[in-house]
Amino acid sequence: xxxxxxxxxxxxxxxxxxxxxxxxxxxxxxxxxxxxxxxxxxxxxxxxxxxxxxxxxxxxxxxxxxxxxxxxxxxxxxxxxxxxxxxxxxxxxxxxxxxxxxxxxxxxxxxxxxxxxxxxxxxxxxxxxxxxxxxxxxxxxxxxxxxxxxxxxxxxxxxxxxxxxxxxxxxxxxxxxxxxxxxxxxxxx
Length: 189
Fold this sequence. Notes:
By secondary structure, the chain is an alpha+beta fold. It is 20% helix and 38% strand.
């Protein structure tokens, strides 16, 4: 029998649409736009901006060697005061060093505008979902001991076939739903 004196953590379900609609992707903040449309009070905090060694999956996405330096921009997000996700934007050093992409704070007016200002044109993206146990650090930040996360890796490629941006979003699995849509005319009954 649960102890009635123990406060219950609220269950918050945040939608994360796949593929990400272009209007949301190009907004000032994907998460703030999504949460506001869902009637959720969003919060965000920048956790880290700087260079770090690329993990194997980020290195493969950005076409660099594992452990090569990449620029990381890591943020944490809350919905109605509950931690729901951690998102890290990764950029190749040759793409983002000494630009707004490696500057402190949030990139204004938008990350999309900063990338385009560097002369890159969007060519396409893939989004891959992986369900897995949370790492100890993720479990601590998201307050989900013993739970799973859904890792979404979105890799955006320029029209010049250069991987410009890898966005890794770690979602508390118990606090998200993932509506997945198909572009009109591309599917069958």
